[in-house]
Amino acid sequence: MDAFYASVEQRDDPALRGRPVAVGGSRERGVVAAASYEARLFGVRSAMPSSRARRLCADLIFVKPRFDVYREVSRHIRAIFARYTPLIEPLSLDEAYLDVTDDLAGLGSATATAERIRAEIKAETGLTASAGVSYNKFIAKIASDQNKPDGICVIPPHRGEAFVAALPVKRFYGVGPKTAEKMAALGIETGADLKAQSLAWLNRTFGSWGEYLHGAARGIDHREVRNDRPRKSVGAENTFLRDLAAPAELIGALDEIIDTLWPRIEGSGARGRTVTLKMRYDDFHTITRARSFTEPLLDRGLLAEAAHGLLLALCPVERPIRLLGLTLSALEQPGEEGMAEQLGLAL
């Protein structure tokens, strides 16, 4: 989906259309969860501190997120997907992989299916979506960003390797700023540069990730679309209107986060074994502390006990706290099924 949260807000409030919008945060505090394309022209991006976003765009309009609405729209969009394939692997509320090999609608190609889905999303939700169509997940993911917003990019097998060769490595899925910096220091700027390296060298330099990079640089990715993709973590966080320092205030704020988090954990149908506390000081320095258990945490009380322990171990705090977050990971989700065999369909 294109600028999903912001686009939903602009759809529902005509006064926001054509204007720079940031979902989340406020003019003084917090972090931008999503930015409209009008805001992106000023350099505003998701995960950016609100204060910086406001400096970049003085006319930026901050809108409180409505996650219940976004989830409902996401369910509608996934229902549209299901008309064309049962093999849907969601990555988030606004993004998913689809394997349309079986061509349930008889449209003859993956491209025709993608165009039909995009048209139905627009007609039924009033929102635009962009699609990447290719023969594997790695290239389809990159292609989905290629012609945003409201675009489609098709990369057939005979063009895959050349497409990847011309890409900056920072656009490779999983290559973050730090890894891109490391690669640049090693003279690796593009997919072609990466392809020039041997598998042995990549394994020595990047460890277990070397094999993935070796294949990706050649347009190879054998991962299958999984409609039972397990969720890896569930989390919640809060940026406070004023900085907190007293242990009692921090425990109270943490309990409010747990009240938000526990229903999400129950809704996910999973239980986790690792609790991670995130703490951001007033100077934006951020630390995390984690504790893992041999058995999953099966009730809210156990989660709260673990979270309180992590927080109290850091008290008294060095500086006032502007944000707390809590995540439950190492999730165990029963009932995982085998992956479907991929067949052939024209792109």
Largest sheet: 4 strands, antiparallel
Q: What is Rg?
A: 22 Å
Q: Quick one: CATH superfamily of the largest domain?
A: DNA polymerase, Y-family, little finger domain
* Alpha carbon gap, first and last residue: 21 Å
CATH class group of the largest domain: Alpha Beta
The CATH architecture term of the largest domain is: 2-Layer Sandwich
Strand content: 15-25%
Question: Which fold name fills CATH's third level, the topology of the largest domain?
Answer: Dna Ligase, domain 1
| Helix and strand pattern | HEEHHEHEEHEHEHHHHHEHEEHE
Could you estimate the helical fraction of the residues in percent? Answer: 25-40%
Number of separate strands: 11
Low-confidence blocks of residues: 334-343
Indicate the mean pLDDT: 90
Structural class: alpha+beta
Number of separate structural domains: 4
Number of helices: 13
Strand order of the largest sheet: 8-11-9-10
Overall shape: globular
In short:
It is found in: Cytoplasm. By secondary structure, this protein is α+β, with helices and mostly antiparallel strands.
Task: Summarize the SSE layout with pairings.
Blueprint: H1 4-12, E1 21-23, E2 34-35, H2 37-40, H3 50-56, E3 61-63, H4 67-82, E4 88-92, E5 95-98, H5 110-125, E6 131-134, H6 137-146, E7 152-155, H7 157-165, H8 177-185, H9 191-195, H10 199-206, H11 210-216, E8 233-244, H12 247-268, E9 274-281, E10 286-292, H13 300-312, E11 321-329
Parallel strand pairs: 1-3, 6-7
Antiparallel strand pairs: 1-2, 4-5, 8-11, 9-10, 9-11
Helix pairs in contact: 4-5, 10-11, 12-13
